[in-house]
Structures are given as structure tokens and as C-alpha cells.
Description:
Number of domains: 2
Amino acid sequence: MKKGVISLISLALSVTMLAGCGDKPASEPSGGAGGDAPKANFKVGMVTDAGTIDDKSFNQGTYEGIEKANKDFKMEYKYLKPAGTTEADYSKEIGNLYDAGFKFIVTPGFKFETAVFKAQDKYTDAKFVIIDGTPHSGDSNPVVKENTVSIFFAEQESGFLAGVATALHVKDGQAGFIGGMEIPPVQKFNWGFQQGVAYANENLGTKLVINKENVVYQGSFDDVAAGSQLAAQMYDRGVNVIFAAAGGVGVGAINEAKTRVQNGSEVWIVGVDVDQYQDGVYEGDKSVVLTSAVKKIDHAAYDMIKAETEGKFPGGQTLTLDATNDGVGLPEKNPNLSDDVLKQVDEVFGKIKAGEVKVTAEQGDLIK
């Protein structure tokens, strides 16, 4: 699914509910790229959520957007890793960045919501970007000040496309879903995936089934062993493909799929957030990851930095990346999907963009 993301500055203002997917202190040295001097007085900082900077998810996607921006704008940049995942841990590192002169601070995930709520008042001369979350005091009532931008994604749309692609590839069999924490973005991936499978069954001649016992939220994003166990149980029940929207739990599911494929089974995983194809490689360039439901996290970070350099930072706004601005979709390359499948998925993507196909962000009559 080849697409360039339209600048977030052109997005319409939208109101969205809570969202998001977050151990000893660590930091990355800051600096410009290619030996060029950083842009004067422009220092971009990031505080990571739980996990590493190369977590194949929010931390990595956000940081890659910052690195890409550095190539174009030559600013100074740095990330800090908190000691824990409490508001106090996040607030401490936000303060450390600010004290070091990093006054454009990007935070990935809903766990930053209360920390950014306080920071936007405490550091009024700083700019804040919170991805997949919105500042609030703990009561879930959003307060996005003029020095802050809140960014969300239409996860249900990328989940829908992944569901269509999965049904078209598998054709006749069973699918399952493993979620991490049962929070809005993970739920929307699930609901979108189920809608996509149903759409393909009704309109494209597929017969992929999702049974209730094969839709599970594990409750965390870091229990790799639990992910392996849940995937094993589903595969033992005859499931052919699992959509894992679960961080480290999903890594466990991928590991189980790799083991099974190496033992002669034909099973698949659908990745999430970023292109997880490489995570599923088990032999040469063969991967158990059929495709991934992608959120353009890197573009979100990049576009906000670009906006700041152009004096167009959309402070006070809540933005949503969706199909209409190519903010969600499938990876640009999908080696496991045929050209015919990709063509049909692209046609469906066009219909979503045009409003001909509506993907809801609510559960409705879907499998719980």
C-alpha cells in the first residue's frame, strides 16, 4: 500500500476518546546528522514509553520520525527512558529534557496523558506532542492547551484492511485476535479486523470464520510467554491466522507461529502498528507475518516537527490520522500477499477514502 502522508496540518480538527499502547533510566546522545550543525535553538526531545527504543512499535516509530526530521531540518535531538511508567517517572524525564533546553517534546502513548496535562501548564514556552493520547487531569476530560497537539489514529480502518487482506489470502478457515490491554486503540483494531473479514465474506467470496473463544485480550503488552501460550491454544483449535495487537504479547504469538511453521504447519500472524514482517522471518526471507495493520506513527512525529520549523504548529488541536490522509493502512510492501489480493485491498481502501465503505469505531454486533 504505497502512500505518502498528507501533512497533519491539513487535517480537520476532531474530538477523540482515550487511546494508546508504554524500566531503568537510559538516554540517547543527541546530535545532528551527516556532520551538519543542528538548527539553532531547536532541540527535539522524546520520552519513551515502556519497552526499548527499537520495540517495533510506538517508541521506535516515534523515534524514526524524529530521526527522519533531523535529516531534513538538522535539529538537535535526544530521547530519555524513564525508570518506570508512572506519571512521576514521565514528568521527571520531561523536566530533565526541558532543563537541558529541549523545548519540543514528543511523547508516545496514553500513559503520558496526565504528565503532559501538567507539563503544558508548567512549561508554557515548550511545545508538546502526545501520540495516541490526550492531556487530562485524571478525569478523562481532554484539555489540549495552545502549546500541545494530541494525535490519534483510525485503528479500525487499518484493522479493516488487514481483515480484508487476511480473508482474501486464507479464503476458508478460522481467524483469531489477541489483544494486549483492552483499551480503545486495541479494541478498534479488533473491531475493524472483524468488520474487514465480514466485508470480504459478504462481498469478495471468502469464508473466514472468527469464533468467540478466539478473541482474547491478554491484559498487558509485555508478557511474551502468555502470547505464545494464547497463540498455541488458538492454533490447536484450528485457527489459521491470528491478528496480534499486543506489543510483547504479540511477539510471543509470532514466536509460536514461527515454531509451528518450522514444524510443517501453515499458520499466519497479522502484525500491528508498524510493518512486523522482519519479526516473523524464520528462514531466509520467509516470514509468518502475512501483513500488518499499520499506523503511520513516524509520520505523526515528523509532520509535527516540520510544522514547528515552518511556524505552523497546530497547538490546541486534536488530530486524527485515517484513510483520507493515508495515516493508516498496510505496509508498502507485502511479500506474502499476491498482486490480486493487493489490488482488491487497494480498491477497498479507495472506497473507505471516498466514504463508500464505512468502518465503525464501535463494537456493535461484533464478536466480543
